[in-house]
Amino acid sequence: MRLVKNVAGVDGLHIALDAFGEAAERRLFESQRIHAPQESHGPNSDADGRRAGRCHRPLPDDVDLFRVCNLVGDCGLYPGYVTPDYVYAITYPPKAAFNKHLDSRYRWGETVVGVTLGQAGTVYFEPNTQAIKAAGPPAAAPPDAGEAGGADAFRVRIKHYDESGSFAIELELPRRSVYVMGGEARTLWKHGIRQQKPGSLPPPPPWNPYNMRRALTLRATKAFSDACLQERLRQATDEAERAALRRRIAAQDKFRPQSSAARLNDRDLAELREEGERMRRHVATQRHRHARFPPSELHFPLPESVACGVRAAADSWPPNGGLRLGGAASPLGSVALASEEEELQEAIRASLRAAGAPVATEPGSSAGGGGGGGGGP
Fold it and tell me: Which of 21, 153, 159, 206 is least surrounded, with the fewest CB atoms within 10 Å of its CB?
């Protein structure tokens, strides 16, 4: 495994390359529980990335998803990572793309984590402020940087759009890579996924005959994330740890939690925070909360402080769409979780139409080939 922090000079953009083995990748890729089509509703996001919609059916206490969450902290990618309460699974058929956007800072917590399965992809970042655009690419982002060859290889490119100074930082995402956006990467840069060009990609593994890329996006809803940080502060005894947590909480206090595009009144905000605290207590009691991949499936040594007692799952852990981690009914109400599937499915269908590729007409059906497990978003 290889860790790269502040990729291309973007503060808070970190990536772990070749973090886990192919057996774990295949399970996550083929899981019908993770990638099952979901009925969804919801409007598009506005310029600030705020979204509203219905909550989704709960996600069972899934061992491999919790293993991925724990990997983020264990490998050093983001120490102190808050296990999220929400996962969104996306299937990208060949030639699919996803336009740039900003995950709302009022709806979601500190970080956004992305996991790449089955095929490589390219994520790009564009400035979300005039100041960053005017400053140009960070000094640590040369026109072409990275290393070629090997499972832990990646490449960074700077793409200049025109003479106005518009640019994007492109980061290749190999299979089994895990990236995290926090800090400035989370709040000052928009991100999207470039169109897949099959001829430029490495051959997919035999168990991915339709050359799909599947991605898992792990996020904590804002009220839940705030509750987790407050609980950590209550439990912490080391003064340095307490000081670090206070800084994290102060940074998050700038963004008042919301469950929709509208600002909540004080009463509704208090109820939202209570629901976030209830979900925190629920996730903390899940049987797979501390699960880790077995050593044979990890490409880094677990910290000594982590007990490597991996619990075996009796069933095959198979979810597509936005789902709750932990198996509880969503505590955030009928509009608390953003229903992004409809927006993302249409974005990918539009990119497929533009590329002249076949497009599925039914939500959740496979686009770009049958048997791949659902074509959108």
Answer: 206
